[in-house]
């Protein structure tokens, strides 16, 4: 993982540890064991659901990776486009899952109750953090997608908990973060690929 991503990830790592623990203790105190059980089952099942949902995009990503290894620049360009399209599907799934989790419990979105928001944050990032931990250490693309998932979910948590913005505006901000983050990763990867090719040539 690039050094700048490691530095950027430190606050998120702290939030990833603190939020679920505080949410668990708080909700145990409130006696809402039902939502804790639901959260545990959802976090476990979402990893398998995500893997299944990614199957269609593999039909695009795998040919893209194959073309990226070609020496012809036109083939590599098409390959990068295919990988980018497949990658966007992954970002879309992450964003949709996060919005679903935060909207599942009325106490989180309607009442903006902090313990439920903290729990929603933990559940929204858990499947992707787990799956990213199984990826090779040099797969910084997976790490970048996971960090973006955590960042967007944290912004969603903070806006819901500490602002009075309309839910529609908060949702737009959340979507904008994902889109901008995706485009940043895409352009950064393209620049890196072009630089590598220039050095190689």
How does this model look, in words?
- With about 200 residues, the protein is mainly α.
- The chain has one domain (about 5-200).
- It has helices spanning about 5-30, 35-55, 55-70, 75-105, 105-110, 115-135, 140-160, 165-200.
- The two termini are about 25 Å apart.
- The model has no long low-confidence stretch (mean pLDDT about 85).
- Helical fraction equals over 70%
Describe the biggest sheet?
none
Which descriptor suits the 3D outline? elongated
Work out the count of structural domains: 1
Question: What is the distance, rounded to the nearest whole angstrom, between the alpha carbons of the first and last residues?
Answer: 25 Å
What is the number of strand segments?
A: 0
Outline the low-pLDDT stretches.
none
Derived from helix and strand composition plus strand pairing, the structural class reads mainly alpha
How do the helices and strands follow one another from N- to C-terminus?
HHHHHHHH
Strand content: under 5%
What is the overall number of helices?
Answer: 8
Overall mean confidence score, pLDDT: 84
Q: Please tell me how large the radius of gyration is.
A: 19 Å
């Amino acid at each position: 993982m690039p050094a700048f991503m490691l530095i950027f990830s430190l606050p998120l790592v702290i939030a990833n540890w603190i939020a679920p623990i505080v949410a668990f203790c708080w909700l145990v105190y409130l006696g809402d064991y039902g939502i804790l059980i639901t959260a545990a089952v959802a976090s476990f099942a979402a990893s398998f659901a995500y893997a299944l949902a990614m199957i269609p995009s593999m039909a695009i990503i795998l040919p893209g990776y194959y073309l990226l290894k070609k020496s012809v620049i036109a083939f590599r360009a098409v390959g990068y486009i295919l990988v980018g399209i497949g990658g966007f599907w992954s970002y879309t799934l992450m964003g949709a899952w996060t919005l679903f989790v935060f909207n599942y419990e009325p106490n989180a979105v309607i009442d903006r109750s902090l313990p439920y928001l903290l729990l929603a944050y933990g559940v929204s990032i858990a499947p992707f953090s787990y799956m990213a931990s199984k990826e090779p250490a040099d797969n910084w693309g997976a790490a970048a997608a996971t960090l973006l998932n955590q960042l967007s979910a944290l912004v969603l948590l903070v806006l819901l908990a500490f602002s009075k913005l309309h839910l529609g505006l908060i949702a737009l901000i959340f979507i904008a973060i994902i889109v901008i983050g995706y485009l940043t990763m895409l352009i950064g990867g393209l620049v890196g690929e072009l630089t590598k090719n220039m050095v190689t040539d």
